[in-house]
Amino acid sequence: LAHLSNKAIYLLWLGNLRYQCILLCRQYVQKLLSTQEASYLQSLRNLKKKINLLQSSTGKQTTRTINSTCPRLDGPINGRKLGRSHAVGHEVHVLCDPGYELVGSESRVCQESLTWSGQQPTCRDINECASSPCLNGGTCVDEVNQFSCVCAKGWAGLTCQTTAAAATLPAATMGPFVRPSRCTIMQGTTHCTCEPGYTISGRDSNTCTDIDECELFHNGQAGKLCLHACVNTPGGYRCSCPIGYNVTRDGRSCKDIDECATRQNNCTKDQMCINTYGGFQCVRVDCPKIPNATYVKTSPMRCERNPCPVDNKACSQTPNSFSYHYLAVVSNLSAPRVMFRVSALRPIGDTLRFSLLGGRQARRHFTVQRSDRGTGQLMLVDPVQGPATLEAEVEMSELERRVQLGRYITKVTMFVSQYEF
Ligand SMILES: [Ca+2]
Ligand SMILES: [Ca+2]
User: Fold this and answer.
1) What is the pLDDT of residues 182-228, one digit of tens each?
2) Scanning 142, 194, 286, 342, which has the fewest C-beta atoms within 10 Å of its C-beta?
3) What tens digit of pLDDT does each residue of 296-315 get?
4) Domains in the chain: how many in total?
5) Do 243 and 343 fall within a single domain?
6) What is the CATH number of the domain that holds 188?
7) What span, in angstroms and rounded, lies between the C-alpha atoms of 270 and 280?
8) The model's pTM
9) Which residues are found with C-beta within 5 Å of the ion, ligand 1?
Protein backbone atom coordinates (compact mmCIF):
# COMPACT_ATOMS: atom_id res chain seq x y z
CA LEU A 1 0.00 0.00 0.00
CA ALA A 2 3.09 2.24 0.69
CA HIS A 3 4.09 1.88 -2.96
CA LEU A 4 0.80 3.29 -4.12
CA SER A 5 0.42 6.98 -4.70
CA ASN A 6 -2.35 8.99 -3.06
CA LYS A 7 -4.09 9.28 -6.38
CA ALA A 8 -4.12 5.54 -6.82
CA ILE A 9 -5.50 5.03 -3.32
CA TYR A 10 -8.26 7.56 -4.01
CA LEU A 11 -9.27 5.82 -7.21
CA LEU A 12 -9.28 2.50 -5.49
CA TRP A 13 -11.58 3.86 -2.73
CA LEU A 14 -13.85 5.43 -5.26
CA GLY A 15 -14.17 2.17 -7.10
CA ASN A 16 -14.98 0.32 -3.95
CA LEU A 17 -17.53 2.92 -3.02
CA ARG A 18 -19.26 2.62 -6.35
CA TYR A 19 -19.39 -1.12 -5.95
CA GLN A 20 -20.84 -0.79 -2.50
CA CYS A 21 -23.29 1.74 -3.72
CA ILE A 22 -24.53 -0.57 -6.49
CA LEU A 23 -25.01 -3.35 -3.96
CA LEU A 24 -26.96 -1.05 -1.69
CA CYS A 25 -29.11 0.21 -4.55
CA ARG A 26 -29.96 -3.29 -5.66
CA GLN A 27 -30.93 -4.29 -2.13
CA TYR A 28 -33.15 -1.22 -1.82
CA VAL A 29 -34.95 -1.80 -5.06
CA GLN A 30 -35.54 -5.47 -4.21
CA LYS A 31 -36.94 -4.48 -0.86
CA LEU A 32 -39.14 -1.86 -2.45
CA LEU A 33 -40.48 -4.34 -4.99
CA SER A 34 -41.24 -7.02 -2.45
CA THR A 35 -43.07 -4.51 -0.27
CA GLN A 36 -45.18 -3.44 -3.20
CA GLU A 37 -45.91 -7.04 -4.14
CA ALA A 38 -47.06 -7.89 -0.66
CA SER A 39 -49.31 -4.89 -0.62
CA TYR A 40 -50.71 -5.83 -4.01
CA LEU A 41 -51.41 -9.41 -2.93
CA GLN A 42 -53.04 -8.18 0.25
CA SER A 43 -55.37 -5.90 -1.68
CA LEU A 44 -56.08 -8.74 -4.10
CA ARG A 45 -57.04 -10.95 -1.15
CA ASN A 46 -59.27 -8.21 0.21
CA LEU A 47 -60.91 -7.80 -3.14
CA LYS A 48 -61.53 -11.55 -3.41
CA LYS A 49 -63.02 -11.55 0.06
CA LYS A 50 -65.31 -8.70 -0.87
CA ILE A 51 -66.43 -10.45 -4.05
CA ASN A 52 -67.15 -13.65 -2.15
CA LEU A 53 -69.12 -11.74 0.42
CA LEU A 54 -71.05 -9.96 -2.28
CA GLN A 55 -71.70 -13.20 -4.16
CA SER A 56 -72.96 -15.02 -1.11
CA SER A 57 -75.24 -12.17 -0.12
CA THR A 58 -76.66 -11.99 -3.68
CA GLY A 59 -77.26 -15.75 -3.69
CA LYS A 60 -79.13 -15.57 -0.43
CA GLN A 61 -81.32 -12.80 -1.72
CA THR A 62 -82.22 -14.73 -4.92
CA THR A 63 -83.21 -17.81 -2.93
CA ARG A 64 -85.39 -15.72 -0.66
CA THR A 65 -87.19 -14.14 -3.64
CA ILE A 66 -88.11 -17.50 -5.22
CA ASN A 67 -89.70 -18.78 -2.04
CA SER A 68 -91.65 -15.61 -1.34
CA THR A 69 -95.02 -14.65 -2.79
CA CYS A 70 -97.73 -12.27 -1.76
CA PRO A 71 -101.08 -13.69 -0.52
CA ARG A 72 -103.45 -15.04 -3.16
CA LEU A 73 -105.44 -12.27 -4.78
CA ASP A 74 -108.90 -13.12 -6.18
CA GLY A 75 -110.53 -11.15 -8.98
CA PRO A 76 -113.42 -8.91 -7.86
CA ILE A 77 -117.09 -9.89 -8.21
CA ASN A 78 -118.38 -8.62 -11.60
CA GLY A 79 -114.82 -8.24 -12.79
CA ARG A 80 -111.62 -10.18 -13.42
CA LYS A 81 -107.95 -10.18 -12.57
CA LEU A 82 -105.18 -10.06 -15.19
CA GLY A 83 -101.82 -11.61 -14.26
CA ARG A 84 -101.24 -14.76 -12.31
CA SER A 85 -97.84 -14.38 -10.66
CA HIS A 86 -97.98 -13.45 -7.01
CA ALA A 87 -94.18 -13.24 -6.70
CA VAL A 88 -92.34 -10.21 -5.34
CA GLY A 89 -91.99 -7.53 -7.98
CA HIS A 90 -94.87 -8.81 -10.12
CA GLU A 91 -97.98 -6.88 -10.95
CA VAL A 92 -101.66 -7.78 -11.34
CA HIS A 93 -104.39 -5.70 -12.98
CA VAL A 94 -108.14 -5.65 -12.43
CA LEU A 95 -110.85 -5.09 -15.06
CA CYS A 96 -114.58 -4.67 -14.37
CA ASP A 97 -117.41 -6.16 -16.45
CA PRO A 98 -119.44 -3.80 -18.70
CA GLY A 99 -121.85 -1.78 -16.60
CA TYR A 100 -119.53 -1.80 -13.59
CA GLU A 101 -116.95 0.74 -12.51
CA LEU A 102 -113.71 0.10 -10.62
CA VAL A 103 -113.29 1.35 -7.08
CA GLY A 104 -109.77 0.92 -5.60
CA SER A 105 -106.45 0.25 -7.30
CA GLU A 106 -106.46 -0.80 -10.93
CA SER A 107 -102.99 -2.39 -10.62
CA ARG A 108 -101.24 -3.80 -7.57
CA VAL A 109 -97.58 -4.82 -7.10
CA CYS A 110 -96.30 -7.59 -4.83
CA GLN A 111 -93.88 -5.76 -2.58
CA GLU A 112 -90.67 -6.87 -0.74
CA SER A 113 -92.75 -6.96 2.41
CA LEU A 114 -94.90 -9.67 0.75
CA THR A 115 -97.94 -7.42 0.72
CA TRP A 116 -99.79 -5.96 -2.24
CA SER A 117 -99.50 -2.28 -2.99
CA GLY A 118 -102.59 -0.11 -3.34
CA GLN A 119 -106.11 -0.88 -2.16
CA GLN A 120 -108.47 -3.83 -2.64
CA PRO A 121 -110.37 -3.12 -5.90
CA THR A 122 -114.12 -3.76 -6.25
CA CYS A 123 -116.49 -3.45 -9.23
CA ARG A 124 -119.51 -1.31 -8.48
CA ASP A 125 -122.67 -1.27 -10.59
CA ILE A 126 -122.72 1.96 -12.54
CA ASN A 127 -125.82 3.78 -11.53
CA GLU A 128 -127.45 4.65 -14.85
CA CYS A 129 -130.12 6.41 -12.86
CA ALA A 130 -127.60 8.93 -11.51
CA SER A 131 -128.37 11.31 -14.36
CA SER A 132 -132.12 11.14 -13.56
CA PRO A 133 -133.11 10.03 -17.08
CA CYS A 134 -136.79 9.44 -16.28
CA LEU A 135 -138.92 12.51 -16.98
CA ASN A 136 -142.26 13.76 -15.70
CA GLY A 137 -142.07 12.10 -12.30
CA GLY A 138 -141.03 8.68 -13.60
CA THR A 139 -139.13 6.37 -11.29
CA CYS A 140 -135.79 5.10 -12.57
CA VAL A 141 -134.92 1.44 -12.01
CA ASP A 142 -131.19 0.82 -12.23
CA GLU A 143 -130.23 -2.44 -13.90
CA VAL A 144 -126.92 -3.89 -15.00
CA ASN A 145 -125.62 -1.73 -17.82
CA GLN A 146 -129.08 -0.22 -18.36
CA PHE A 147 -132.06 1.37 -16.74
CA SER A 148 -135.81 1.43 -17.17
CA CYS A 149 -138.43 3.97 -16.22
CA VAL A 150 -141.64 3.33 -14.36
CA CYS A 151 -143.73 6.24 -15.56
CA ALA A 152 -146.15 8.26 -13.49
CA LYS A 153 -149.82 7.99 -14.41
CA GLY A 154 -150.58 9.67 -17.72
CA TRP A 155 -147.01 9.40 -19.05
CA ALA A 156 -145.37 6.82 -21.29
CA GLY A 157 -142.30 6.16 -23.42
CA LEU A 158 -138.81 5.01 -22.62
CA THR A 159 -138.05 8.04 -20.51
CA CYS A 160 -141.70 8.94 -19.82
CA GLN A 161 -141.30 11.72 -22.37
CA THR A 162 -144.77 11.45 -23.96
CA THR A 163 -148.28 11.47 -22.65
CA ALA A 164 -149.84 8.04 -22.35
CA ALA A 165 -152.62 8.92 -24.81
CA ALA A 166 -150.11 9.65 -27.57
CA ALA A 167 -147.91 6.65 -26.89
CA THR A 168 -150.39 3.83 -26.62
CA LEU A 169 -152.68 2.37 -29.25
CA PRO A 170 -156.41 2.82 -29.07
CA ALA A 171 -157.68 0.86 -26.09
CA ALA A 172 -159.83 -1.38 -28.28
CA THR A 173 -156.83 -2.96 -29.99
CA MET A 174 -155.04 -3.61 -26.70
CA GLY A 175 -155.86 -6.94 -25.15
CA PRO A 176 -154.32 -10.29 -24.45
CA PHE A 177 -153.17 -10.56 -28.07
CA VAL A 178 -151.57 -7.10 -28.11
CA ARG A 179 -149.43 -6.04 -25.21
CA PRO A 180 -146.97 -3.25 -24.53
CA SER A 181 -143.36 -4.19 -25.19
CA ARG A 182 -140.63 -3.89 -22.62
CA CYS A 183 -137.98 -1.44 -23.74
CA THR A 184 -134.68 -0.47 -22.18
CA ILE A 185 -131.95 1.91 -23.18
CA MET A 186 -128.58 0.22 -23.31
CA GLN A 187 -125.53 2.32 -24.07
CA GLY A 188 -127.70 4.84 -25.86
CA THR A 189 -129.56 2.28 -28.02
CA THR A 190 -133.16 1.27 -27.46
CA HIS A 191 -133.88 -2.43 -27.11
CA CYS A 192 -137.47 -3.65 -27.03
CA THR A 193 -138.39 -7.21 -26.21
CA CYS A 194 -141.55 -9.30 -26.03
CA GLU A 195 -142.59 -12.29 -23.99
CA PRO A 196 -142.27 -15.67 -25.73
CA GLY A 197 -145.01 -16.16 -28.32
CA TYR A 198 -145.20 -12.46 -29.13
CA THR A 199 -143.47 -10.42 -31.79
CA ILE A 200 -142.50 -6.75 -31.86
CA SER A 201 -144.94 -4.51 -33.69
CA GLY A 202 -146.14 -0.94 -33.71
CA ARG A 203 -144.57 2.22 -35.04
CA ASP A 204 -142.02 2.60 -32.26
CA SER A 205 -141.70 -1.10 -31.45
CA ASN A 206 -143.83 -0.21 -28.48
CA THR A 207 -146.24 -3.14 -28.78
CA CYS A 208 -146.01 -6.88 -28.89
CA THR A 209 -148.48 -8.86 -30.99
CA ASP A 210 -149.29 -12.51 -30.41
CA ILE A 211 -147.86 -14.87 -33.02
CA ASP A 212 -150.70 -16.81 -34.66
CA GLU A 213 -149.02 -20.21 -34.73
CA CYS A 214 -152.11 -21.79 -36.32
CA GLU A 215 -151.92 -19.43 -39.28
CA LEU A 216 -148.13 -19.49 -39.45
CA PHE A 217 -147.91 -23.28 -39.65
CA HIS A 218 -151.16 -23.83 -41.53
CA ASN A 219 -149.40 -24.98 -44.67
CA GLY A 220 -145.97 -25.07 -43.14
CA GLN A 221 -143.29 -27.53 -44.05
CA ALA A 222 -143.13 -28.51 -40.40
CA GLY A 223 -146.46 -30.23 -40.91
CA LYS A 224 -149.81 -29.41 -39.42
CA LEU A 225 -149.54 -28.44 -35.81
CA CYS A 226 -152.73 -30.24 -34.86
CA LEU A 227 -154.45 -33.37 -36.12
CA HIS A 228 -157.88 -31.71 -36.04
CA ALA A 229 -158.06 -28.04 -35.10
CA CYS A 230 -155.63 -25.41 -33.91
CA VAL A 231 -156.73 -22.73 -31.47
CA ASN A 232 -154.58 -19.63 -31.26
CA THR A 233 -154.09 -18.38 -27.70
CA PRO A 234 -152.31 -15.32 -26.30
CA GLY A 235 -148.63 -16.25 -26.30
CA GLY A 236 -149.21 -19.76 -27.63
CA TYR A 237 -151.70 -22.17 -29.19
CA ARG A 238 -153.48 -25.40 -28.38
CA CYS A 239 -155.03 -28.24 -30.36
CA SER A 240 -158.67 -29.13 -30.03
CA CYS A 241 -160.59 -32.26 -30.97
CA PRO A 242 -164.21 -32.88 -32.00
CA ILE A 243 -166.80 -33.96 -29.45
CA GLY A 244 -166.21 -37.60 -28.56
CA TYR A 245 -162.44 -37.28 -28.71
CA ASN A 246 -159.79 -36.29 -26.22
CA VAL A 247 -156.55 -34.52 -27.06
CA THR A 248 -153.71 -37.02 -26.69
CA ARG A 249 -150.86 -36.53 -24.27
CA ASP A 250 -148.63 -35.06 -26.98
CA GLY A 251 -151.21 -32.27 -27.30
CA ARG A 252 -151.47 -32.76 -31.04
CA SER A 253 -153.61 -35.80 -31.84
CA CYS A 254 -157.13 -36.93 -30.97
CA LYS A 255 -158.15 -40.17 -29.31
CA ASP A 256 -161.67 -41.57 -29.25
CA ILE A 257 -163.38 -41.66 -25.87
CA ASP A 258 -164.62 -45.17 -25.07
CA GLU A 259 -168.01 -44.25 -23.68
CA CYS A 260 -168.92 -47.90 -23.19
CA ALA A 261 -165.92 -48.59 -20.98
CA THR A 262 -166.17 -45.35 -19.04
CA ARG A 263 -169.95 -45.49 -18.50
CA GLN A 264 -170.39 -42.22 -20.37
CA ASN A 265 -173.33 -43.73 -22.25
CA ASN A 266 -177.05 -43.82 -21.78
CA CYS A 267 -177.74 -47.34 -23.08
CA THR A 268 -180.52 -49.17 -21.25
CA LYS A 269 -180.20 -52.54 -19.58
CA ASP A 270 -181.56 -54.48 -22.56
CA GLN A 271 -179.25 -52.65 -24.96
CA MET A 272 -175.63 -53.22 -25.78
CA CYS A 273 -173.18 -50.37 -25.93
CA ILE A 274 -171.01 -50.32 -29.04
CA ASN A 275 -168.10 -47.92 -28.91
CA THR A 276 -167.56 -46.04 -32.16
CA TYR A 277 -165.02 -43.46 -33.29
CA GLY A 278 -166.32 -40.16 -32.01
CA GLY A 279 -169.35 -41.64 -30.26
CA PHE A 280 -171.19 -44.79 -29.26
CA GLN A 281 -174.26 -46.75 -30.29
CA CYS A 282 -176.88 -48.49 -28.16
CA VAL A 283 -178.04 -51.62 -29.99
CA ARG A 284 -180.69 -54.14 -29.11
CA VAL A 285 -180.66 -57.60 -30.65
CA ASP A 286 -184.21 -58.78 -31.36
CA CYS A 287 -184.71 -62.11 -33.02
CA PRO A 288 -186.38 -61.82 -36.46
CA LYS A 289 -190.01 -62.58 -36.98
CA ILE A 290 -190.29 -64.79 -40.03
CA PRO A 291 -193.34 -66.74 -41.21
CA ASN A 292 -193.25 -70.48 -40.59
CA ALA A 293 -190.45 -70.30 -38.05
CA THR A 294 -189.73 -69.03 -34.55
CA TYR A 295 -186.37 -67.96 -33.16
CA VAL A 296 -184.90 -67.85 -29.71
CA LYS A 297 -181.89 -65.96 -28.39
CA THR A 298 -179.12 -68.37 -27.50
CA SER A 299 -176.57 -65.64 -26.75
CA PRO A 300 -176.68 -61.79 -26.66
CA MET A 301 -175.72 -61.71 -30.37
CA ARG A 302 -177.28 -64.85 -31.74
CA CYS A 303 -180.73 -66.22 -32.49
CA GLU A 304 -181.44 -69.85 -33.40
CA ARG A 305 -184.49 -71.37 -35.02
CA ASN A 306 -186.67 -73.55 -32.90
CA PRO A 307 -186.91 -77.13 -34.25
CA CYS A 308 -189.27 -77.35 -37.21
CA PRO A 309 -192.23 -79.73 -37.19
CA VAL A 310 -191.60 -82.91 -39.17
CA ASP A 311 -192.19 -82.50 -42.93
CA ASN A 312 -192.69 -78.70 -42.62
CA LYS A 313 -190.64 -77.79 -45.69
CA ALA A 314 -191.39 -74.04 -45.39
CA CYS A 315 -189.92 -74.03 -41.92
CA SER A 316 -186.86 -76.12 -42.75
CA GLN A 317 -185.95 -73.71 -45.58
CA THR A 318 -185.74 -70.67 -43.25
CA PRO A 319 -182.32 -69.74 -41.86
CA ASN A 320 -181.11 -71.92 -39.00
CA SER A 321 -179.52 -68.96 -37.21
CA PHE A 322 -178.98 -65.22 -37.25
CA SER A 323 -175.72 -63.78 -35.87
CA TYR A 324 -175.20 -60.05 -35.26
CA HIS A 325 -171.91 -58.20 -35.44
CA TYR A 326 -171.10 -54.51 -35.06
CA LEU A 327 -167.97 -52.87 -36.39
CA ALA A 328 -166.67 -49.37 -35.80
CA VAL A 329 -164.40 -47.91 -38.48
CA VAL A 330 -163.04 -44.50 -39.43
CA SER A 331 -164.15 -42.55 -42.46
CA ASN A 332 -162.45 -43.21 -45.80
CA LEU A 333 -160.89 -46.48 -44.72
CA SER A 334 -158.68 -47.74 -47.52
CA ALA A 335 -160.04 -50.61 -49.62
CA PRO A 336 -160.06 -53.46 -50.53
CA ARG A 337 -160.02 -54.76 -46.99
CA VAL A 338 -161.35 -57.83 -45.19
CA MET A 339 -163.99 -56.72 -42.67
CA PHE A 340 -165.32 -60.00 -41.34
CA ARG A 341 -164.90 -63.78 -41.69
CA VAL A 342 -167.61 -66.44 -41.52
CA SER A 343 -166.93 -70.15 -41.16
CA ALA A 344 -168.80 -73.30 -40.19
CA LEU A 345 -168.14 -74.62 -36.72
CA ARG A 346 -169.03 -78.24 -37.48
CA PRO A 347 -169.43 -78.60 -41.25
CA ILE A 348 -171.85 -81.25 -42.36
CA GLY A 349 -172.48 -82.02 -45.99
CA ASP A 350 -170.06 -81.80 -48.88
CA THR A 351 -170.32 -78.14 -49.93
CA LEU A 352 -170.29 -74.69 -48.26
CA ARG A 353 -171.60 -71.71 -50.22
CA PHE A 354 -171.17 -68.03 -49.29
CA SER A 355 -173.19 -65.11 -50.69
CA LEU A 356 -173.91 -61.44 -50.01
CA LEU A 357 -177.48 -60.44 -49.21
CA GLY A 358 -178.77 -56.88 -48.85
CA GLY A 359 -179.65 -53.91 -50.97
CA ARG A 360 -177.78 -51.73 -53.47
CA GLN A 361 -175.85 -49.89 -50.76
CA ALA A 362 -174.39 -53.14 -49.47
CA ARG A 363 -173.43 -54.29 -52.98
CA ARG A 364 -171.74 -50.94 -53.73
CA HIS A 365 -169.31 -51.25 -50.83
CA PHE A 366 -169.03 -54.97 -50.12
CA THR A 367 -168.38 -58.29 -51.72
CA VAL A 368 -168.12 -61.81 -50.31
CA GLN A 369 -165.23 -64.09 -51.19
CA ARG A 370 -164.21 -67.56 -50.16
CA SER A 371 -160.82 -67.51 -48.44
CA ASP A 372 -160.51 -71.26 -47.98
CA ARG A 373 -162.77 -74.29 -48.22
CA GLY A 374 -164.57 -73.60 -44.94
CA THR A 375 -164.37 -69.81 -44.68
CA GLY A 376 -165.95 -66.88 -46.46
CA GLN A 377 -164.98 -63.25 -45.99
CA LEU A 378 -166.80 -59.95 -46.25
CA MET A 379 -164.65 -57.48 -48.15
CA LEU A 380 -164.92 -53.71 -48.23
CA VAL A 381 -164.28 -52.78 -51.86
CA ASP A 382 -164.94 -49.06 -51.81
CA PRO A 383 -163.96 -46.48 -49.15
CA VAL A 384 -166.93 -45.07 -47.25
CA GLN A 385 -167.22 -41.39 -46.41
CA GLY A 386 -168.62 -41.01 -42.89
CA PRO A 387 -170.64 -40.47 -40.94
CA ALA A 388 -172.55 -43.48 -42.15
CA THR A 389 -173.99 -46.80 -41.02
CA LEU A 390 -173.73 -49.69 -43.47
CA GLU A 391 -175.33 -53.07 -43.18
CA ALA A 392 -174.42 -56.28 -44.98
CA GLU A 393 -175.67 -59.83 -44.64
CA VAL A 394 -173.54 -62.85 -45.37
CA GLU A 395 -175.34 -66.12 -45.98
CA MET A 396 -173.57 -69.43 -45.58
CA SER A 397 -175.35 -72.53 -46.98
CA GLU A 398 -174.45 -76.14 -46.34
CA LEU A 399 -175.25 -78.64 -49.07
CA GLU A 400 -175.05 -82.39 -49.46
CA ARG A 401 -175.32 -83.59 -53.06
CA ARG A 402 -176.82 -80.19 -53.99
CA VAL A 403 -179.49 -80.52 -51.36
CA GLN A 404 -179.56 -77.69 -48.86
CA LEU A 405 -178.95 -78.82 -45.31
CA GLY A 406 -178.85 -75.48 -43.56
CA ARG A 407 -178.67 -71.67 -43.93
CA TYR A 408 -176.83 -69.38 -41.54
CA ILE A 409 -177.16 -65.58 -41.72
CA THR A 410 -174.53 -63.18 -40.33
CA LYS A 411 -175.66 -59.54 -40.12
CA VAL A 412 -172.76 -57.07 -40.03
CA THR A 413 -173.42 -53.44 -39.11
CA MET A 414 -170.59 -51.02 -39.76
CA PHE A 415 -170.51 -47.61 -38.02
CA VAL A 416 -168.37 -45.22 -40.06
CA SER A 417 -167.13 -42.14 -38.19
CA GLN A 418 -167.17 -38.58 -39.47
CA TYR A 419 -163.42 -38.11 -39.18
CA GLU A 420 -160.55 -40.09 -40.55
CA PHE A 421 -159.06 -40.65 -37.08
CA1 LIG B 1 -150.46 -17.44 -30.32
CA1 LIG C 1 -166.31 -43.53 -28.74
Assistant:
1) 888 778 788 888 999 999 987 777 889 999 998 888 765 556 789 89
2) 286
3) 999 999 999 999 999 899 99
4) 4
5) no
6) 2.10.25.10
7) 16
8) 0.57
9) 210, 232
